[in-house]
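User: Working on a comparison across species. This one is MIP18 family-like domain-containing protein from Kalanchoe fedtschenkoi. Can you predict its structure so I can line it up against the others?
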Amino acid sequence: MTLDMDAAVDPLEIYDILRDIKDPEFPSSLGELNVITDDSVAVDEKTGHILITFTPTVPHCHLANIIGLCIRAKLNSHLSLHHKLTGRC
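Assistant: Here's the predicted structure for MIP18 family-like domain-containing protein from Kalanchoe fedtschenkoi:
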């Protein structure tokens, strides 16, 4: 799924792209583990910012950076360069 950048980016479309990423420690996806939810994606079309807030499965997850990189890599392959991606854990 590649997003049409002439149209507005829908947070639910972004969630649909991200929810199937496999967790690095568990045999489940980020969506199944509620690491990412549909409410954790915010889009500001005026500034081109996309904010992804994810919640690791444990408070001091040592793989949170890997999860963030997986999210960034997946979105980089689906979004145009005019969007700025920001993440927070």
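For your comparison, note: Strands lie at 41-44, 49-53, 84-88.

User: Helpful, thanks.
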